[in-house]
Specification:
With 306 residues, this protein is α+β, with helices and mostly antiparallel strands. The protein is 47% helix and 11% strand. α4 runs parallel beside α6. The mean pLDDT is 94.
Length: 306
């Protein structure tokens, strides 16, 4: 799901990549300038990226309840579904890398056989709070992702093997599966959590990828922006690109759309302002109040409307 199609790759190489290099980014908004304003954190209140980027609650009261009032509502069914489906995808990607290293290029047929026989991830831990019909639906969706990703990986490995007769295991992994999933990052330099984790990251052209299973929202781009700033702060190389991967199920079909975007000055400024505003809310314990229009699927709905 993280691999680009030929059209997406062309859009990236001929459109976004040159544009990102031409327009540039203000140096004070690069993550490596974390020790100076506006990036230096104002409040000693580490936040997770999702806490800064999330805007599902119009007043951010969900964040206030969790961090100030220490309320711990159960994850919503949507949150459980997203976690389970993401885990199902990671399971296939990591297993494929492990099989390449375990069997080696010369035993590529064994790699394919093992991938074909790979047992899907058990998602039972994610279904405990779901109704039986919802749980079964989730199992079916996880299986669709498993089958889709496995088929794509096998095709990619076959393609690489036909082009490179002297390739080794490590290079095969790098070319066929050029993503690092759930890379751990320390966001302390930017006043963020020390235990961050990206959905995926590509190194060939540094790009943050984030997988979504809901409706596209404008603020989703803050997620990729936050991780880009953290990577710049840690490794001191520019990360200009983000990609939101939206997965949708239509019956038994998986539909994937990607939002490739430049992480420009506007997004960086937006992220920093959101970080400071939310850190202040928590630090000064300011209750923003219940929103006028709450989404009934919000996991804090019962707390705000009891």
């Amino acid at each position: 799901m993280y691999f680009l199609t030929d059209e997406e790759r062309k859009h990236l190489l001929k459109g976004l990549l040159p544009r990102s290099r031409d327009q540039g980014v203000a140096d004070e908004l690069r993550g490596w300038n974390w020790s100076q304003p506006p990036l230096s954190p104002v409040y000693d209140m580490p936040l997770a990226i999702y806490e800064v980027a999330g805007a599902y609650c119009p007043t951010n009261r969900d964040l206030y309840l969790r961090r100030v009032e220490r309320v711990r509502p159960k994850p919503s069914p949507a949150m459980a579904r997203g976690s389970a489906l993401h885990a199902a995808l990671v399971h296939v990607l990591v297993a494929a890398k492990r099989l390449i290293y375990a069997h080696g290029v010369d035993n590529y047929q064994e790699i394919f056989r093992s991938l074909q026989e790979l047992v899907p991830l058990s998602i039972e831990p994610y279904t405990r709070d779901l109704a039986p019909t919802e749980a079964e639906s989730l199992r079916q969706k996880a299986l669709i992702i498993h089958d889709f990703e496995r088929a794509r990986i096998i095709a990619r490995i076959q393609e690489i093997l036909t082009k490179h007769p002297y390739i080794g295991e490590d290079s095969l992994v790098s070319l066929a599966l050029p993503v690092v999933v759930e890379q751990k990052l320390d966001g302390s330099f930017l006043g963020l959590s020390a235990n961050l984790s990206t959905d995926a990251f590509t190194f060939c052209e540094p790009m943050i990828l984030d997988l979504k299973f809901g409706e596209p929202r404008k603020f989703h781009r803050l997620q990729t922006t936050g991780y880009a700033l953290v990577m710049e702060a840690i490794y001191e190389f520019p990360v200009n690109l983000g990609c939101l991967v939206y997965a949708e199920f239509r019956g038994n079909r998986l539909i994937i759309k990607k939002d490739l975007h430049v992480i420009d000055d506007e997004l960086r400024q937006w992220f920093i302002e959101a970080r400071d505003e939310k850190a202040r809310m928590i630090y000064e314990e300011i209750d923003p109040g219940v929103a006028e229009e709450c989404h009934p699927a919000c996991y804090c709905y019962q707390v705000c409307h009891r």
